[in-house]
Design goal:
Layout (H helix, E strand, L loop, with lengths): L7 H8 L8 H11 L1 H9 L12 H17 L1 H10 L8 H19 L23 H10 L1 H12 L2 H7 L7
Helix pairs in contact: 1-2, 1-8, 2-4, 2-6, 4-6
Protein name: Inner membrane protein
Keywords: Membrane, Transmembrane, Transmembrane helix
Organism: candidate division TA06 bacterium ADurb.Bin417
């Protein structure tokens, strides 16, 4: 997708109901990490496919695990962010790693129907998902997904700041 934020609507629709089993910020930001590859290609004028190795399930997994390690190191900042968003947050590396993998794979599979240069099942060269769903339909679903995502967020955020404070999850500064 030309703009990574399009991934956040469907991603939030999936991750918010599963917030007890998934690490929400790690899942969502793993989607963002995958698009660092095309950003680098565009920014530096690289002679490299716009959607290269990071847009495969195999190498996307490496991006996801790398992001999980970074997120675990910065978990204190994620906890603060989640508290500001009024969402409970208890980081656990295993859950972070699973969430990062699923987020990366979600991104690859969401982009695969749109772009012929994506090879989701690398080392296989074919993209059997390309063209199965029209680009317009994918963009529309992604855009409309922000509506239920907002509703899910508002439901999840109700009264959670105090819960985080009582549980000792927020460090007083």
């Amino acid at each position: 997708m030309p703009f990574t934020p399009f991934h956040f609507g469907p991603g939030a629709c999936l991750a918010l109901p599963l917030k007890e089993r998934l690490d929400l910020p790690v899942f969502l930001l793993s989607n963002l990490a995958i698009d660092l590859e095309p950003l680098a290609v565009i920014s530096f004028g690289l002679k490299y496919p716009l959607h290269g190795y990071a847009h495969t399930l195999l190498f996307g997994s490496l991006v996801g695990i790398g992001w999980a390690a970074l997120a675990f190191a910065g978990r204190r900042h994620l906890r603060r962010l989640m508290n500001r968003l009024r969402l409970p947050y208890r980081p656990d590396f295993r859950i972070m790693a699973i969430s990062a993998l699923l987020g990366a794979w979600f991104h690859v599979l969401l982009d695969a129907p749109l772009y012929s240069d994506i090879r989701p099942f690398y080392p296989l060269t074919a993209n059997p998902l390309h063209g199965k769903i029209s680009g317009g339909a994918v963009y529309l679903v992604c855009l409309l997904a922000f509506i239920p995502a907002a509703v899910l967020y508002l439901q999840a955020a109700g009264g959670k700041r105090a819960e985080n404070d009582r549980a000792g999850l927020v460090k007083k500064e």
